């Protein structure tokens, strides 16, 4: 079942009457139900514009979006969604408990369940101790956690979170990634935008990269990382000079009675048989790059291609 479908959306903003900004250019992707999906891209790539179109806060110039097969702008489609906006503003004289009770009433959570649900969410976002203090007296990170909390109150199937880790310290980020993992374990779908690619690598099944309003990549995180390596790290035991001598392109460092070699993928087979004849092989591992390194390279090559145009 497809939770989110984005089909060929485009959006151009007009600034100062004449200046046009093409924020999205024919973007399409879909998110299967039960998936944790990371939506990444540099500042101005079009992430928030996509999310606002999904939530019906902006109309696309072309294309369409749906939640579970229904136009995402319809109230019955949006009722299944918990949404965290990029820069949410709350009535700051309310307390976290009052705000969550308000959200529960808005989503018609039955009165008998509401108090228990609000307490559960306060516990989950670790704000029980501050539940009855006005929001204006809370830190930025606590307010960000309330933002996540208000998406959880009506227990929706789908979560659309615009930068849920923004403004959080490492403990706060770990809490958010933990909540996302709990949602996944309960069969929920989570779609979130972020600049923190490391968090995508930790929690996401799939990832999409948006650059300059166009989708550059969309696929499984595991396949990006598994497919990205182009060399192997080989460790051999040998306390004197290596034999046979190494060809160009192979880096070697000595560590005590072992040597650590970095061997290009296409030279591995040939070299491994001669190395193993004269040395004791300790390990052979692909030298994987992180998702961050892979995407930074993609972003840099996109920018240099744009510079050449
Ligand atoms: N209301 C608007 N009027 C004019 N231009 C806009 C408007 N909203 C967004 N833009 C422009 O559209 C482009 C995409 O912006 P968007 O906020 O979607 O990017 P983003 O990927 O979410 O960036 P960030 O990571 O900085 O939040 C940018 O060039 C931005 O200046």
From TrEMBL:
Protein name, entry field: ABC transporter ATP-binding protein
SMART domains with a match to the protein in the record: AAA
Organism from which the protein derives: Geomonas diazotrophica
Pfam family, one: ABC_tran
One MF annotation (Gene Ontology) recorded for this entry: ATP binding
Protein's UniProt keywords contain Transport: yes
Lineage top rank: taxon: Bacteria
Key words, A-Z: ATP-binding, Nucleotide-binding, Transport
Domain ABC transporter, chain residue ranges per copy: 4-237
């Amino acid at each position: 079942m497809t939770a989110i479908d984005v089909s060929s959306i485009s959006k151009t903003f007009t600034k100062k009457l004449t200046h046009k900004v093409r924020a999205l250019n024919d973007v399409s992707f879909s998110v299967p139900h039960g998936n944790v999906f990371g939506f990444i891209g540099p500042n101005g790539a079009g992430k928030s514009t996509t999310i606002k179109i999904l939530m019906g806060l902006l109309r696309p110039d072309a294309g369409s979006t749906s939640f579970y097969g229904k136009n995402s702008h319809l109230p019955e489609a949006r009722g299944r969604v918990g949404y965290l906006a990029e820069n949410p503003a709350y009535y700051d004289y309310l307390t976290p408990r009052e705000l969550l009770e308000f959200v529960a009433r808005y989503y018609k959570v039955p009165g008998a369940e509401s108090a228990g649900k609000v307490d559960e969410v306060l516990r989950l976002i670790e704000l029980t101790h501050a539940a009855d203090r006005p929001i204006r007296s809370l830190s930025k990170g606590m307010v960000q956690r309330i933002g996540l909390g208000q998406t959880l109150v009506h227990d929706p199937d789908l979560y659309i979170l615009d930068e849920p880790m923004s403004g959080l310290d490492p403990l706060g980020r770990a809490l958010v990634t933990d909540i996302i993992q709990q949602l996944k374990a309960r069969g929920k779908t989570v779609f979130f935008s972020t600049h923190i690619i490391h968090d995508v690598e930790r929690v996401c099944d799939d990832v999409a990269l948006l650059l300059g309003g166009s989708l550059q990549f969309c696929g499984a995180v595991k396949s990006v990382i598994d497919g990205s390596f182009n060399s192997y790290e080989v460790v051999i035991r040998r306390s004197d000079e290596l034999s046979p001598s190494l060809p160009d392109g192979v880096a070697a460092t000595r560590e005590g009675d072992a040597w650590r070699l970095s061997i290009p993928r296409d030279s591995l087979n040939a070299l491994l048989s001669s190395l193993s004849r004269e040395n004791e092989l300790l390990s052979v591992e692909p030298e994987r790059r992180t998702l961050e390194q892979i995407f930074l390279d993609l972003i840099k090559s996109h920018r240099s291609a744009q510079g050449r145009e």
